[in-house]
Amino acid sequence: PPSHITGTMDWEEALKTYWLNYAGKISARDKMYRLVQYSSRMIYFQLDQSGAPKETVAWVKHISKYCSTGRKFIRLGKFIDNWYKAYKHLCKYSISLTSEQDLINCLKLMGYIADAIFYWWDALAWLEGAKMMKFPSLQVKHRRTQWNMYRYTLKAIRDFLALRTIPTGTKKYYSVRRIALKSSLDVLNPISGLKYYKLNDGQLGLLGTMTSLISIFDDFN
Predict the structure, then answer these.
(1) CB–CB of 136/89 below 8 Å?
(2) Is 115 left (phi over 0), alpha (psi -120 to 50) or beta?
(3) How do residues 139-181 score in pLDDT, each as one tens digit?
(4) C-alpha to C-alpha distance for 212 and 135, rounded to whole angstroms
(5) Which of 23, 66, 190, 205 would bridge with 41, disulfide CB 3.0–4.6 Å?
C-alpha cells in the first residue's frame, strides 16, 4: 500500500521529499557548503598539529578554501534581496521604540540592512578572490569582517530579546533559542578576524561546524 496510508516512507520518497527539496534552495546549499568549509578547516588544523604529510594538509585546506569561494559565488546578488527585505519590513512596521516588540522589529530591520551591506562587501571579496577586479583602497576583507560582526551581534540581541515575548516550551521558542545561540557563537569568528580576540583555525573550524549543524537542524525542525 502507499506510504501515506501505511504511515511509513521509503528511503527514495524521503530523499525526494526532504533532501532534494532542501538542497534545491540557495540558502540550504550555502549552509551545506559552510558545514564542509568549517569541518575541513578544523580537520586540516588537527592534521597539521599531529604532523600529517604536508600534501594531505594542503589538500584538506584546499577544500575549505574552495567551499569559501563557492559560498561567495552563490551569494552574489544577495545584498539586493536583503535590501528588499528591509524595505518590506519598513513598510510593514513603523519605526518606534514604545514597546519591547517595537525594539525587536527595529533590530530586525537593522539586521536586514547589516546583512545587505555585508553581502555587498562579500561580493567584492569574491571578485577579488577570483582575480577579476581589485579594490586596494577599499579594504574589502576588513570591511566584510566588520559587517559580519555587526550583523551577528544584531541578530543575537534581537533573538534573545524575542525569547522574552515567546511562550516558553513552544516549538518557536526552541527554534529562536537555537538561532540566538548560533549567532552568539558565529560572532566570535569576525571578532577573531578583527584581532579583538584570537582563535586558531581549529577553534574557528569547530565553532563553524557547530553553528552550521544548528542551522541545518533548525531548518528540518
Answers:
(1) no
(2) alpha
(3) 999 999 999 999 999 999 999 999 999 999 899 999 999 999 9
(4) 30
(5) 205
Cell of 32: 551545506
Place of cell 567551499: 67
Per-position DSSP letters for the chain, written without gaps between them: --HHHHT---HHHHIIIIIIHHHTSHHHHHHHHHHHHHHHHHHHHHHHHTT--HHHHHHHHHHHHHHHHHHHHHTTTHHHHHHHHHHHHHHHS----SSHHHHHHHHHHHHHHHHHHHHHHHHHHHHHHTTS---TTTTHHHHHHHHHHHHHHHHHHHHHHHGGGS-TTSHHHHHHHHHHHHHHHHTHHHHHHTTSS---HHHHHHHHHHHHHHHHHHHT-
CA–CA separation, 31 and 6 (whole Å): 33
Rounded CA separation 77/122 (Å): 10
Q: What is the pTM of this model?
A: 0.84
- How far apart CA 92 and CA 187 sit, in angstroms, is 28
Count the Cβ atoms, other than its own, within 10 Å of residue 80.
13
